[in-house]
Amino acid sequence: MKDKISASEVRLYNKRRIFRTLIRSGMITKQELAAETQLSIPKITQVLSELVGSGLVQECGIQESRGGRRPAAFCAVADARLAAGIDISRNHLNFSVVNLRGEVIVNERIRCSLTIDPSFYEKLYVRFMQFLGEHSVSYDKLIGLGVSLAGIISADQDFLAYSHVLQTDAPFDLRPFRRLLKIPVAFFNDANAACMAECYTGMAPSSFNFLSLSNTVGGAVVIDNRIVPGASGRCGEAGHLLIVPGGRKCYCGKRGHYDPYGSALTLADAADGSLADFFAGLEEGNTEYKQVFDEYIHYLALLASNLHLWSDLPIVLGGYTASFLAPYVDRLKKEMSDLTIFDEEEEYLYLSSYRFEASSVGCARYFSEQFLDSL
What we know:
This protein is an alpha/beta fold.
């Protein structure tokens, strides 16, 4: 058993602490870094020299003097490395690029249908390279590409096990796409990727249930900031929970699942396919939209209250629909409280920080966070 940490491990740990502090703080002096990290000025100076030499940190100004010589300030070069993400749904591709601060520097959503067949790899590669070129993103700066798909991904991330949304029920080998690129590539379930984005913001609870309310409904369970995969990678498949026995037909072929009651399409279809138009009409008092939304809120409250009661964990609502729900959160909480036996004293319902880009940002930030942990 290893019972002593080596000097090199301590140096690497300190390097990561200092760089993360720089990423978080913006402009900061050596003295301020020493106060925040509890490291000595000589150690701070040594690490800063290494980080400046690698192009990750630069001197970025002189602070006001508090007596004596004016101290130099340093800042992280957040764009020194970039990470990319692609979210693949039935009818859209969403591309995102993030910097080391996790900021989205480029995001584009295009209408595009990719068939899960041998042509998939080349078409996705061409689309990705076009996206980088159109937005002047340097391929040489990329540290990784994350790809999210609406389906079950094998534990080794080599196969799309199956996907009703993308219309494949046989394992589909994803490895050929990796071989087209010269950077690390990882694959994720779309709801898990969106949940990862939420975890990385640092604003979500440390443990929660995540509901992704998009054109399909997905979910994830987070315990102590880690997504629980389940025995077969299917933990959190909230869209396929039975909520109305014998009810509407789900896209998977079964009846009564939550998805046909909670999908964004349930609302958008009432407004000729536009979710934004639906909520605009709802605000204007459209009676047809109100009926549709009343039912939507009823079933969302039913599902969310059951998940909250069963797990005793807060609920975070993400996906396209969640971005429109802020005016209706109090109503949703009221409907949930009417269904539960407990009085809630603490906050237990949150809205995601993201809209369409959550999944692509989540799997991009997977690589930016890995990079920060590997310094």
